[in-house]
Amino acid sequence: MRLGIRLIVLVLSIGAFIGLVQWRALARETAALEENPPQGQIIKVDGVDVHAVTMGSGPDLILLHGAGGNINDFTFGLAPRLAQSYRVIVFDRPGLGWTGRVPGAHGELWDTRAESPLEQARFLQQAAEQLGVERPIVLGQSFGGAVAFAWALSDPDTAAVVSVAGVANPWPGQLSRLYRVNGSLAGGALVVPMLSAFAPQSLIESTLASIFHPQPAPEGYLDHVGPGLSLRREVMRANARQVLSLRPHVVEMSERYHELDLPVEIVHGSADTIVPLNVHSITLPDQIEGANLTILDGVGHMPHHTNADDVIAAVDRAASRAGLR
Length: 325
Description:
By secondary structure, this protein is an alpha/beta fold. Helix content is about 50%, strand content about 15%. The protein contains 16 helices and eight strands. Strands 1-2-4-3-5-6-7-8 form an eight-stranded mixed beta sheet, with helices on both faces. The model has no long low-confidence stretch (mean pLDDT about 90).
């Protein structure tokens, strides 16, 4: 009898805790959405929302953010500067920010499938078509670099690619345990909601510091980027599963880089420990004829903030080489 009562109490306690976690996660997600509304327009692609910010005039320039990020990463500083010379189109990548998932290319809670770089590129190309984009320069940062290369490999109208600390080549070893846990069935169902509900400000700040290391994050960046957008349950699951499934697609794309016949500019910091220079970018000039690599000595993973002048110069070179300026 006592054992039965204990089991009932245990089940009720577990149920109450799960309910608390989900309630707390929902409350934080609701607040994050209210505090970080869409900055631009919502475009429908196959019935799915795509969030795009457009600014400036001139040659079309598409900006694609990294893993776990959103449009706010570029609107903090780089996009407004580039808009002085280009028509800048910044997208939230699928499953992140205010953009939904690619139909049929992913699962829900109990399905670990995720959008490949090619599926993301083709999905966003449809949004770009609705905006009248022609011969775009496509800039990708971090994970966005893989999507930028997929864009160029799938769209012959691409004028140029700019890879900024971009994922481009296969890497050795496994990804961090956090990605493996969050991307798994059990982790997605159990761990992700707890992170969404209870992640402290100290963890957010330390994660940001590790992304920018060895440089500091710009003042005001954390408030602008809206970390709560990235801590939503569906976003964390989508991001982890996209990252976990990325390597085979990068292997396949890297074997096709020799097909690229367009200007490619690469900007990469020598101190980048998240997407290491020696793994991802150092060989690109040998893989892509005419690719130009700019190595930033002692710079980490976020040169579009810490060394924006170098990134803008790379965009300008790409535009000139493509005959757009």
